[in-house]
Amino acid sequence: MQKVRVGVVGLGEVGQITHLPILQALGDRYEIGALCDISCELLRSQGERYSVEKRYTDAGELATQDDLDAVFVLNSDEYHAECTIAALEHGKHVLVEKPMCLTDAEADAIIAARDRAGKVVMVAYMRRYAPAFLRAVEEVHSLGNIRYARVRDIIGQNRLIIDQSSIVHRPNDIPRDAIQDKQQRAERLGREAIGDRHEEFGGVYRLLCGLSSHDLSAMRELLGMPERVLGAAVSERGRFISVIFGYPGYNVMFETGTDSQRRFDAHIEVYGDSKSVRVQYDTPYIRHLPTTLTVTQTVGEAYTEVVERPTYTDPYSRELEYFHEVVTTGGQPKTTPEDFKQDLQLFRMIIDSLSERSTDNIAHDTEPPQQEPTADFWYTNSDDRAALRKKAPKAEQLNYLWYLWDQHNVLLNKQGQPARDEHGHFKEKLNNDPGKLNDAELERATGLRSQTVRRYIERYKKTGERDDRAPGAGQGNRWNH
Fold it and tell me: Which of 12, 101, 120, 336 could, after both became Cys, cross-link 106 (CB 3.0–4.6 A)?
């Protein structure tokens, strides 16, 4: 069997737990010819573990290595497009982890580079290569009328599972300038993708690009693209997302989020008249946990439930077997860059719906006034303040930003202590343009969810309305900018 010689860019958790061990296990198909990471610690540990001599801290240099057939791009999302294009420009096939990139412009650049090179670019949507999923596609296509579908991916943080099941080298030598560059790229690409809405929904967009891209991509293969988004909402500061997609004749409920439970609940279920099909995934960070297919059906008076486990081979292994076949036979994968662009379109549809809902909430927020607590009581302790904020009218909560600040100093003066500027490090930002505050600054200043604060800032800018009943009103209109 023809071997494909691979260079691996990015030696983090996904590389250490899945890709590198599978490449080694598929030794009849692959050979690891080079490694790249910005951490010299990781290069040393993984290079020694897999006996790889060629090691790079620059993906562009790895791409120039003549004896490589393909490059696996496994590093941070912000660099996927750059590394993919560099590999293509030096005549290499590419397997790129999801998301392939963060913007349409990056996707188009990858497609153009692929076409110039005449090479393969495959997006690593491993769930779509699981045998149970492939069986589900067959079952759904023969299901008849679809009545409803549900797509769910609510999981505990990956580290909760990894720490109990794997030994992962987490380096301590990441250069400070590399961290800053990553943050700046994330900000720039987020704004390119969704514009000014990045302030409120940047975190949501990244969750969609990350965890949710697996689910939405699989949904598309099973059901096709939805016609529209009927509604979308976020909770827990954007860590949970709920969306209703409209399809011809039926709707699909999509729900996703991360918490601190050590469990992995990811499934897609499609309901017909008298039959349903469900694909259940388990964590990919423990290899060989099976993906299962459950088919339930009612025929006459009988109800049956059949659970299929086509194989113990994990989806990552099947994905790499497929990539090898495509590269060595001159084929094209089903998870192409063009296919991925449909996911970018879906992400924007969801952000559009969230934006409309946010604007609607601003226009229709007319809660009646309520009695407010006294100033000193707000400073009893943080738990009291958190409880009382929930009782305060939403339209007045933003005024507490300044009210609490001033009253804190009043309280300190009463106690004979010098007044201090509790939030002085971004006071100037607030006075000049509150819209420039980042999410962490807003939440630290107000104790409120940043997207809530931004809604009221935006309403003030548009209407000039400020509720004079708010306790801080008598101190002057500080939002008048």
Answer: 101
Question: What CATH number has the domain bearing residue 80?
Answer: 3.40.50.720
Distance CA 347, CA 208 (A): 6
287 and 388 inside one domain:
no
321 located within any domain: no
| CB environment 305-344: b (16+ within 10 A), e (fewer) | eeeeeeeeebbbbbbbbbbbebbeeeeebebbbebbbebb
For residue range 117-165, list pLDDT tens digits in order. Answer: 999 999 999 999 999 999 999 999 989 899 999 999 999 988 889 989 9
Q: CA 194 to CA 201: how far, in whole Å?
A: 8
Single pTM value for the model: 0.75
Q: Of all helices (H) and strands (E), which one includes residue 115?
A: helix 104-117
Rounded to an integer, what distance in angstroms lies between the CA atom of residue 313 and that of residue 289? 8
Query: Does a structural domain hold residue 480?
Result: no
Looking at the structure, tell me whether residues 207 and 352 fall in a common domain.
yes
Both 57 and 120 in a single domain? Answer: yes
Residues 143 and 263 in one domain: yes
> Residues 20, 144: one domain?
no
Residue 340 and residue 250 in one domain: yes
Domain range for 403 is 365-475
Using alpha carbons only, give the angle 153, 157, 162 rounded to the nearest 5 degrees. 115
Q: What is the DSSP letter of 144?
A: -
Per-residue DSSP letter, 99: S
Number of domains in the chain: 3
Q: What is the pLDDT of residues 369-400, one digit of tens each?
A: 333 333 333 333 444 444 444 444 433 444 44
CA distance 463 to 461: 6
Q: 307: which residues sit within 8 A by CB, 6+ positions away?
A: 292, 293, 294
Q: Are residues 423 and 462 in the same domain?
A: yes
Does the pLDDT of residue 113 top 70, yes or no?
A: yes
- pLDDT one-digit tens code per residue, 324-348: 999 999 999 999 999 999 999 999 9
pLDDT at 458: 59
Largest CA distance in the chain: 83
Domain co-membership, 172 together with 215: yes
Residue 149 backbone phi and psi in degrees, to 5: -150, 155
Q: Would the CA dihedral through 103, 108, 113, 117 be positive or negative?
A: positive
Q: Please, what is the average pLDDT of the chain?
A: 82
- What is the C-alpha separation between 5 and 423, in angstroms, rounded? 55
